[in-house]
Amino acid sequence: MIANVGYFVLVMTFLLALYGAGAAAYGALRQRPALVESGRRAMLLTFPLITLSALAIIALLLGGEYQVEYVASVTSNSMEPYLRVTALWGGQAGSLVFWSWLMSAFASAVGLRRWSRDRELLPWVVVVTMVTLAFFLAMVVFFENPFARLWLTNDGQQVTAMFQPGGTVPLVPADGQGLNPLLRHPGMVIHPPMLYLGFVSFVVPYAFAIGALVTGRTDDRWIRVTRRWTLVAWLFLSLGLILGGRWAYDVLGWGGYWGWDPVEIAAFMPWLSGTALLHSVMIQEKRGMLKHWNMVLIIVTYALVIFGTFLTRSGVLSSVHAFAQSAIGPMFFAFIGLTFVVSLSLLIRRWEALKGENQLNSMFSREALFLLNNLLFIGILVVCFWGVIFPLISELFTGQKVTVGPPFYERATGPLWAGLLLLMGVAPLSAWGSASLRALGRAIWLPLAVSLFLPAYLVLSGTVTHWAALLGFWLAAFVGLVTLYEFWRGALARHRRAGESLPLALWRLAGRNRRRYGGYVIHLGVVLMAFGIIGIELFQTETQGTLRQGEQLTLGGYVVTYDNLRQWDSIEEGVNITRAEVSVYRDGKFLGLLAPRRDYYYVAQQPMTIPGVRSSPQDDLYVLLVGWEADPAAGATFKIYHNPLVNFVWAGGLVFILGTLVAAWPDREPEPAGQRAAARAGTLRPGREAV
Amino acid sequence: MKRAALLTGLLLVLLSVPSVAPAFAQEGEPTDDQVNAIAKQLYCPVCENIPLDVCPTQACVQWRETIRQMLTEGRTEEEIRQHFVEQYGARVLATPPASGLNWLVYVIPPLAFFGGAFILVRALRAWRRPAAAQMPVAPDTPDDPYMARLEEELKRRG
Fold first, then answer.
1. Please, are residues A306 and A266 in contact by the beta-carbon 8 Å criterion?
2. How many Å apart are CA A522 and CA A420, to the nearest integer?
3. Which of A89, A170, A218, A446 is most buried, judged by most C-beta within 10 A?
C-alpha cells in the first residue's frame, strides 16, 4: 500500500514537473502571465509531493518491508533506526529520489521569492529547474524504482516488478542485505547529503544564467541574484569534500584522507569550476568584463554536477560495459550532452550582446591575477577530468583497462596548486583597474621578506630540507602573512579613525564587508590545510611488523607495544570483531592505549579496518591491525603511520567553512554596489538584492 | 617565450612518466616494509582504486605474499612489477605505462594548460588596447561613507 502510494506520487510529480517546465516556457514565450504563474505553482507543488514520496520510502525502510527490493538491498534487521533512515541515500534508487527532493526544495525556495522582481528571468528558472527535476524523476519512475517489489515465479525465479506479474507470489525475505558496512559511519551519514546539497544548489545559478541568455539580459543581474546561492552551493560542496576526507581517514584504513579516487574527483570537479566562478564573477561585478567566461563557467559547473552524479550512479567507473548495460547510464549521458549543447547554443546566440564593457588596464591588476587564478583552477580541472575519463577511453578503444592513480594527479596538479598559493598571496595586495608593478612591489615586499624567515628557520634548524616542502611552507606562510596583514591594516585604520578598540574594529570591519573578509578567512583556512597537506604528503612515514605480545615497533619517535588481542562475534550486528590493544610511548613516557580493529561483516562478506589513532597538534600516530596468528599471543601484524601536521587539514577545514559562512551570511541592508549597477543598466528595482 | 613553454611542457610530460626505481637484490627474509614499498605501487584488478599495500581482502594478502616470495628469490622490484603486469595487465600499475594510446594521458593536460595560457595571454593583450571611455571601478561598499574613508586611508597608506 505505502509502496503503491509512493510510486503513484512519484509519477504525479514527474508529470507535474514536465507540466511546470512546459507551462512556464510557453507562458514566457507567448507573454501569458497566467501560464507562467501556473508553472510556478506546479513547481511549488513538487516539493510536498516528493516529500511524501521520500517519507513513504523512509516508512518502508523503518518498517523493514523487505518485499520492496530497495529496502532489502540497503537495510537489515540489525541496523539502528537512524541508519535505516539514512539508507534513503545509501543506494541508487533512494539517492536519486533524495536528489530530486533537494532539487524541488531549492526550486520552491526560488519560487517563493518576490515574483515581482526579475519577472523576465524567473519563468526560465522554473523551466531549467523543472527540466532537471523531471529528468531525475524519470530515472526513478522508469528505471530505478525504489518501490519495486520482489516476486517469486512458479519455477522459483526471483523477479522485480512494481506490480505483481502473472503466475508469481510475493517474495518477502526474512532479512535484508544491509547497508554497506563502510557507509555506517556518522561522517558517511552526513557526507552524501552535503554533496547533494552542493550539487543541487549550483542548479539555481545555472537556471538564472540560462534565463539571462534566453531573455537577453546581458547585465550582471543573474550573478547578483545568485551570488549567495553560488556561495551556499560551494559551502555544501566544500563541507561534503571535507567530511568525505574525514570519513576516509577514520574508516578506510589506509592512513590518508584523499586517494584521488574517481568518485572523490566527481565531487571535486564542480567545486573547482565553482571556485573559479566565485572569483571571476567579481571581475564582472567590478569591471563589467568576462561575461562570456562566467557563462561558460556556470554551464560547465552544471554539466559537471550532472556528470558527477552520472559517474557515481551509472557504473561507468567499473567498466564502460557496465555503463552500456546500466539502465540510466546512457540516459544521463544524453541529458548531459543535450543540456550542454543547448546552453552553449544560447551563449553563442548572445555572444555579441555579452561583449565586455571595459578593458584591461594592467597585467598586474587584480582582474588579471584573477584570470590567472581561473587558468590554474581550470588546469587542475582538466587534469582531473582527463584522469577520470582516460581509463574509459582506453577501455573503449583498446579494450585495455588502465589505472590513473594518485601519482598522476599529484605530479600534474602539484605545480598548479603552488601557483594558486602564490596568487593567493599576491592578489589581495593588487588593485582593481589600473595597477603598476611598482605599486604591487611596494605592497608586497614586506610580507614577502618576513615570510622567508620560515623556510630559513626550517633549513637552519635542520627540521626540513626537502625543497618542495620548503617552497610549500614558504608559500603558505606568505599567504598567511598577507591575509593577516590585510585584517591588521583594515582594523588599524578603523581604530585610528573612530577610536574603536582593535577587536571591535576588526569585528566591524569584517561585518561591513563580509564577502571580502569571509574570503580572507577562507584563505587562512587554505593556508592551514596547505601546512597539513604538505606535512602528510611529504613527511608521512610508515612501518609494518608482526609482533609477539610485549614486542614493539618504533616510528616517528613513538614506541608501540603489542599488549593483547580479543576476537568475538556480535550476533545482533552480524559482525566478527577482532580488537587489539597497543600501548604508545614517547621518550619513555606512557601516552595511552590504542585499539585498532578489524571488523568482518558476514552478510556483506566485507572486512573493515578501523585504525587506532593518537592525535596531537603536530602529528597523528595511526595504527592498523593487519593480521594475526591463530594464537594471538604468538603474533599480530600492525601497520603504523606517522602523519605529521595532518590535524592542520581538519583545523583548516573548519576555518574554511567558517569563512564561507561569513561570506554567505545574509546582509541586513541592501547591497549598494548592486543597486548602483542596476541603476546603470536602468533596471533598478526596490527591495533587497540578494535571494 | 614559446620555446620556454615548449620546454616546460616537455619537462612536465617527462616528470609525469613513472620512474623506474633501482633494483635491489634481497638477502634473507624480506621485511613487511620492503613488501609494502612495492605493493604500494600496485592495484589489484578487483579492489578498484585501493593500493595493494592497504587492501584488506584475502586476494590482496596473497598478492603481497607473492611479492614476498619473489623478493626472497632475489627478484628485483622491476621484475616483480613486470610479473604482475604480465599476469593481470597494465591496470595493476598506479599510472599507465607511457606507450601507445597511453601517451595521451600525459600529453593532453600540459597541452591543454599551455593552450589555455596562450589564449589567456592573447586575450590579455587584446584587452590592453587603450579604451576611449573606461567604466570606473566600483569600490566594495562606496555608499557606506565609513568604508569609503577606510578605503581612502588604506590607499594612502598602501
1. no
2. 14
3. A89
| CA separation for the pair A210, A275 (Å, rounded) | 20
What is the C-alpha to C-alpha distance for residues A76 and A594, in angstroms, rounded to an integer?
Answer: 31
Please check whether residue A456 is in contact with residue A448, taking contact to mean a CB–CB distance below 8 angstroms.
Answer: no
Containing structural domain, residue B80: 19-94
Quick: pLDDT tens for B84-135: 999 888 889 989 988 888 899 999 999 999 999 999 888 888 777 654 444 4
DSSP structure class, residue A251: I
Say whether A233 sits in a helix, a strand or coil: helix
Band of residue A507 on the pLDDT scale cut at 50, 70, 90: confident
Cβ-based neighbour number of residue A117 at 10 Å: 17
Is B83 inside a domain boundary? Answer: yes
Secondary structure (3-state) at A586: strand
- The CATH number covering residue B48 comes to 1.10.8.640
Q: Read off the C-alpha cell for B124.
A: 590579455
Residue A206 has pLDDT above 80, yes or no: yes
Lookup: cell for A465: 630540507
Nearest to A84 by CA among A95, A93, A98, A74: A74
Residue of chain A minimizing CA distance to B31: A545
- Which residues of chain B have a CB within 8 Å of the CB of A519? none
Residues 6+ apart with CB under 8 A from A243: A187, A190, A191, A194
A94, A81 in Cβ contact below 8 A? Answer: no
Instruction: Kindly list the residues from chain B whose CB atom is less than 8 angstroms away from the CB atom of residue A411.
Output: 15-16
B91 contacts on A by Cβ (under 8 Å): 391, 400-403
Nearest by CB to B91, from A402, A442, A516: name it.
Answer: A402
Interface test mutation site (partner A, options B48, B58, B65, B67, max chain A beta carbons within 10 A): B48
Contact A673 B49 (CB under 8 A): no
SS3 A581: strand
Assigned domain for B85 exists: yes
Q: How far, in Å, CA of A39 to CA of A45, rounded?
A: 10
Q: How far apart are CA A689 and CA A114, in angstroms?
A: 11
d(CA A296, nearest CA chain B) in Å? 14
What pLDDT, in 10s, does the model give residues A593-630? 999 999 988 877 888 889 999 999 999 999 999 889 88
Cα separation of the two ends of chain A: 40
- Closest B-chain CA to A675: B143
Closest CA to A492 of B153, B142, B148, B155: B153
A104-108, A284-288, A336-340, B5-9: which range is least confident on average? B5-9
Q: Which set of grid coordinates corresponds to residue B157?
A: 597608506
Give the pLDDT confidence score for residue B19 in this predicted structure.
37
What is the residue whose three cell numbers read 592513480? A405
Amino acid at A70: Y
pLDDT digits (tens, 9 = 90+) for A648-660: 999 999 999 999 9
Query: Are A147 and A3 spatial neighbours (Cβ–Cβ below 8 Å)?
Result: yes
CA atoms within 13 A on the CB side of A303: 19
Instruction: Classify residue B66: in a domain, yes or no.
Output: yes
pLDDT computed for residue B141 by the predictor: 46
Number of structural domains (chain B) is 1
Provide the residue ranges of all domains of chain A, joining segments of one domain with +: 1-157, 541-647
Whole-Å CA distances, B26 to A512, B23, B37: 67, 10, 14
Domain annotation covers residue B50: yes
